[in-house]
Amino acid sequence: MSEVDAARSWRRFDRRRRIGRFVGVLAALSVFVASWRFLDTGITNVETVPREIRDLLTRMYPPDVAYAPEIVDPLVETLHIAALGTLGALVLAVPVALLAAENTTPNAVTYWLGKLVVTVSRSVNTIVWALIFVVVFGSGPLAGAVAIAFRSVGFLGKLLGEEIEEIDFGQVEAVRAAGASSTQVLLYGILPQVKPALVGLSVYRWDINVRDSTILGFVGAGGIGVQLFRAVNAFAWQSVSMILIVILGVVLASEGLSASARRMTR
Amino acid sequence: MTLDVTGLRKTYESGDEALKGVDLTVDGSETTAMIGPSGAGKSTFIRCVNRLTEPTAGTVELDGTDLTALDDDGLRAARRDIGMIFQEYNLVERLTVMENVLTGRLGYVSAWRAFRRNFPPEDVERAYEVLERVGLADMENKRVDELSGGQRQRVGIARAVVQQPKILLVDEPTSSLDPETSNTVMRLLTEIAAEREVPVLINIHEVDLAVDHADRIVGLHDGEVVFEGSADDLGDDALDRVYRGGDPPESREPTASESEAVIEDGAANDSVVRDGVVSADGRAPDRSTSGGS
Question: In the UniProt record, which is one GO cellular component term (chain A) (predicted)?
């Protein structure tokens, strides 16, 4: 081999892009530093942290098993809030998804309407929705279920809409070419294609909703959160730990259930 | 049954002129094959007939009803009489064979009955019969995504035939299939159509298959009909007109005078030229007499 004349050079990014990338990293770092300083966050008394944790754990131990029967009813209520909220969301989310998907929405106005519903629903936290509906319906599980539904509509509408945009439109056209009505096109051309996603997403959202509905009680919207909030305020740490263990169990169970449900629908 | 297409034009939003005024009549129970290079407008033509693609201008008359003038409900009713078979089968993959075949009856049942898969017994019986005819007996509960390409296209044929259509539109039925399966599928298609006396308008780019199975051949080049005649009349220069058109189709920007010139080149051997259409059997393409044979 003769000596190579390195006449050609290669860089992944040109000069402008390199400067741009450098500025980007610098900006991210400055945001981090600025936030840190604004919040004046400093762990000043590090030595007390382990002591406080140990203290809390000793007060929580042993969990108050005798308290368990009292939380069965609120727990069942929590599960019902999650189920009802998810079902309600599902009913509302299907039309929203059809509006928010580019290939099924009738026109530009309906498309933006769909996107608007999705955005509004998603940008408001469940607990804020709950505050609103506690005012509307009074405190209790109904406010909780409606809050769950309103938050979930955006989630389901957005993800289901994206699934609808991914479908094979040839299958839809074939159904339409046979003289099917638009409802029938929906049932035979679109629904079968998004069914696994529909089931998977609703179960996944139900799973999230079980967790969300455990804290709805903090604002009076029913469920086990009412008990938890009361126990924390009363410094009844052994009851708190009992509630937390039960919530953990329910969340684990719902996660297992949702995983197997999604496996079943292919 | 008569399908009468007059002056059909389609200009896409991009400005592409896919069809530049196509006239075509299909009647009786003959099989008409439309050949032409890719991009000639074959698919656009077929899709304009049942308005899966909206034509820009022209009329499509099925037994005297102008399909281009129908409103949504009218179009839906008219589509029940037009069976369509697709290149990529376009079966609903996650549904069973039976559900796919019964899709052909959707135009006759309510959405609620369709949702509950509660079809009239006659429709189910008809579906079973068609499935047996296409060689898929006992496959009704298989999901379509478990089937082979050839089997899928048989389901596609069954779905179109169970509509009891007045005409079958077939868009490149074999381009996803191997040569042997292509031949079987084409034979099945033309046989069923003949049994039921349904005329077939079929898009195909494989000339051999068209010659073997069609009664009449229409050659489309760059959005215009450049040949119309029986399979026997499809000589080398006719093929040359359809597939070369004087120039490679990609690089061609034809003007009116240019395509005239191309036709006249070929016309030395053929008999009659009129409006850029050559009828190889010596007749001008008179609407009332164009019947191939």
Answer: plasma membrane
